[in-house]
């Protein structure tokens, strides 16, 4: 389900006619791990990744409800100034605030055609807001929360104990097995 949700978020953003200004929309794969920051050539961009899941809550006899968080990273650059990376610049220069707003409009309360709770926004964090060489660079991450059911397959509810092995240690402090028993059950 995690892969399906991430892919659905990416596809919804890619399909939006109003976001044609984006040069890249894809799954996050460490684009900022390289110190050279060659990624500035494909900006503005959006990357999506699974951010984590909270502990599942029992939702029925054989179902758990899993709260999941995804992060949508919105990135913009500007040769004018670091401020322009956040605010729109002249003409077609798009700032990260507009990207965040446009993505929010697309994802807010959507189930993306999947069997999930509607997406709800979470925290927005600044990942980068800096000047890099002669470019301003801004990357903000918007969290999106949902829940989905994890159903336990019926055969997983059956626990079969077919073999038991017992080791007896008769002398305290001695880790040597003095005797053992083995029981095997048949169906």
Percentage of helical residues? 10-25%
Classify the secondary structure makeup into a structural class. alpha+beta
Task: Please give the largest β-sheet.
Answer: 6 strands, mixed
**Approximately how much beta-strand content do the residues carry?**
35-45%
CATH superfamily: Phage tail protein-like
- CATH top level label: Alpha Beta
Can you name the CATH architecture?
2-Layer Sandwich
Number of strands: 8
Shape: elongated
- How many structural domains does the protein architecture include? 1
CATH third-level topology: STM4215-like
How is this structure best described in words?
The chain has a single domain (2-157), classed as STM4215-like, CATH 3.30.2000.10. A hairpin with a 2-residue loop joins strand 3 and strand 4 (63-78). The chain is elongated, with a radius of gyration of 25 Å. The chain is of the alpha+beta class. The protein has helices at 2-15, 82-86, 96-107; strands spanning 24-27, 45-53, 57-60, 63-78, 120-132, 135-151, 163-168, 179-184.
Note the topology.
Elements: H1 2-15, E1 24-27, E2 45-53, E3 57-60, E4 63-78, H2 82-86, H3 96-107, E5 120-132, E6 135-151, E7 163-168, E8 179-184
Parallel strand pairs: 1-2
Antiparallel strand pairs: 2-4, 3-4, 4-6, 5-6, 7-8
Question: Could you name the key traits of this structure?
Answer:
187 residues, 40% strand, 6-stranded mixed sheet
Summarize the structure.
By secondary structure, this protein is of the alpha+beta class. The protein has one domain (2-157): STM4215-like (2-Layer Sandwich), CATH 3.30.2000.10.
């Amino acid at each position: 389900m995690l892969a399906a949700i991430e892919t659905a978020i990416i596809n919804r953003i890619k399909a939006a006619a109003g976001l044609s200004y984006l040069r890249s929309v894809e799954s996050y794969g460490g684009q900022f791990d390289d110190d050279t920051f060659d990624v500035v050539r494909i900006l503005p961009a959006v990357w999506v990744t699974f951010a984590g899941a909270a502990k599942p809550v029992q939702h029925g006899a054989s179902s758990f409800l899993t709260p999941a968080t995804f992060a949508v990273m919105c990135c913009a650059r500007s040769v004018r100034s670091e401020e322009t990376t956040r605010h729109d610049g002249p003409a077609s220069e798009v700032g990260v605030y507009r990207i965040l707003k446009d993505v929010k409009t697309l994802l807010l309360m959507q189930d993306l055609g999947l069997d999930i709770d509607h997406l709800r926004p979470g925290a927005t964090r600044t990942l980068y807001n800096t000047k890099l060489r002669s470019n301003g660079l801004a990357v903000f991450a918007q969290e999106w929360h949902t829940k989905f059911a994890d159903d336990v397959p019926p055969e997983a509810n059956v626990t079969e104990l077919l073999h038991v092995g017992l080791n007896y240690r008769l002398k305290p402090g001695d880790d040597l097995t003095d005797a053992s028993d083995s029981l095997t059950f048949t169906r």
